[in-house]
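User: Show me a protein chain along with its predicted structure.
Assistant: Here is one chain, sequence first, then structure tokens.
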Amino acid sequence: MLKQTSKFCVLFRFSFAKTTRGLFALVVSLFIMALTVAPFEPFSVSEAMGKTVTLKAITAFPWKPGPIGNFNQAFDWIEKVQKRANGELKIRYLGGPEVMPSFEQYEATRKGIVDIYIGPSDYAVPIMPESLAPVAVKLSPMELRKTGFYALLGEIFQKHNLYFLGNVKSPAGYQLHTNVMVKRPEDLSGLKMRMSPVYKPFAAALGINYVSLPSGEVYTALERGLVDGFAWTVSSRVLDANWPEVVKYYIDHRFGDSDLVMLVSLDTWNKIPKKLQNLMQQTMIELEQEWNPIWAKHQEKTLELYKKAGMKPIRFSPADATRFVELYYDSTWKHIIKKSPELGPKLEKLSKK
């Protein structure tokens, strides 16, 4: 009883937020966690001594199964790892932001409240400015492993008690969606857009008013005119959340590579048998190779679904489009280097062939 009470207190302190939105998320999180206390029990050393190792995974966004669903590649990894482990390893999926708010999941993984985080790297920006780097690259995951980019990134994550397994990223990239017809990048100045940290330097360079909101509040914010648009990946999440009902256009010039990192609590990782560590890592590397071209095909399918849902593409002139896209990379790297003057330049150098 004392053990369960202690766990409950830790989770309560962790989830506490000062805002009304944070308080609501706290109540929901505690209710769900109270029903499933066992999944949040810390990783047990005894489990790694011959018994099945059970790890708890969480995702930054809700997962909806489908041919182009969010996190399909992550669940492909989970399925393959468990099959190859022959019963020695089980990965239990707890859920997404309905279990724990997205922006709190990094901290939960660092502290070992959950074992595996699956989601954007940039959600770690408050504690690790270098986490913006994976989305400001033009190379494939395989190329980034060869240059040493991922090796250095992994070292930085370990300083924050996280083990970097890999990044099953999508070359589909990011794009802006808006209810205001714009003809040039300069027309975006002054607009209010829901964004995550990955876009913040870009927004400042364009003069966009950056608005931070949980993804679950985007529909209402657009419906009520509280924001003029939002930034997101080319993703089925846009369709699943019914956002095309409340947004008219998308700017048909993509930038960056939308990432999906998998991080393990370093405390947990160090307790996993070496054989299983190698299995998890090797399977991740295989999926990085397999999913990169798959996502390229999904991008075109998803954009067609955007159009069928009623969204219209906005296209700049070739010169403006080039300037718009390159501004994303330039502004993001300047921000990373400013915040991390020692490691930022090293990461930028390794992000190129």
